[in-house]
Design brief:
Chain lengths: 190, 190
């Protein structure tokens, strides 16, 4: 077996998700994942630090989209425009072809409280990075943190709509609708 | 030693927080907590399931305030009015006398990733309960979940302002300001 298997990462990722979905995350071993695609445990660990990392390997990429999206907003953009730009940029990360994968991943995470906690921490990290991007633009707290957290809320709710059974709308459309909905909601609080 | 020690729960709680703050959460044992207030481990376990529970014993009470606060809103209240009523009701749980305790607890939680994940799950649970209360009023998703999550965001940001160094403003005042700020922010997203 050669040291670098072509497509090994993707095959391991696919096999891991299948096993987590059918056997359960806790019950699946790294040996089983590797075996399912004819690779060794050693090869698995060349790509992923552990079983959990298969599910969270994309976190940094998603965070980078957010931060780059925020940076792309005009200098004079209002705080929520910066946030909307960050969230819209993340939509590229969720094309329609990815929906089936995202659905499967979400079901695995929801079935496991420890994975759920990890996912929530990831969202909290996203909000923290976005808040930093806003502060770097001169937007002070608490406005920066409130805007960033609200943006991540919109993102999370949009994401759960995007992976809902039967949904065929694009992530970017749903996100746009959720920002509009938040605007309507928040203007009627008193 | 009598089976029911007067004030044992509060004394254990206070000793636990002191130890978590000075020695660290992981490094503190239940035996040390009990010993610090002249009680036994057995007595500790009569009040708390484990070390972590000392920090999260109030979660159900906070959730109940949210749900009762939502129920107290008029029948024809707009979604964010219901949410604001829920969040305002929770302010009773954070009187000024509690601030020093809340500050100490927050510092302990922030220093420990596992506790932070547990805290985030608690917030996620609050949002889920509030969303259920909104759905029970006939408010459909995604409006219900977006409004509930936004309310918890306001609560969290208000809470972090409330415990910030030097702050002396009340929780209810800060929450009100954060709802107004969200209204301003969300109406300027395009």
């Amino acid at each position: 077996m050669s040291r670098w298997e072509p497509g090994a990462r993707e095959r391991l990722n696919g096999a891991a998700l299948d096993l987590y979905a059918t056997k359960g995350f806790e019950e699946t071993t790294v040996a089983e994942i590797a075996q399912a695609v004819g690779l060794t445990e050693r090869t698995f660990f060349r790509y992923f630090a552990d079983k959990r990392e298969v599910l969270f390997a994309g976190s940094e990429l998603l965070e980078k989209r957010f931060v780059d999206g925020a940076a792309a907003a005009p200098d004079d953009a209002a705080p929520m425009e910066v946030v909307a730009s960050a969230v819209a940029a993340s939509a590229d990360y969720f094309p329609d072809e990815r929906r089936a994968y995202s659905r499967k991943r979400a079901a695995i995470i929801e079935a496991n409280p420890a994975l759920m906690e990890r996912e929530l921490r990831k969202m909290s990290g996203l909000a923290a990075s976005l808040a930093t991007a806003l502060r770097d633009r001169g937007i002070p707290d608490p406005t920066a943190i409130l805007a960033a957290e609200s943006g991540v809320t919109v993102f999370r709710v949009a994401f759960s709509q995007w992976i809902a059974d039967g949904n065929e709308r694009s992530m970017v459309d749903i996100e746009r609708e959720m920002f509009a909905e938040l605007g309507t909601l928040a203007s009627h609080d008193r």
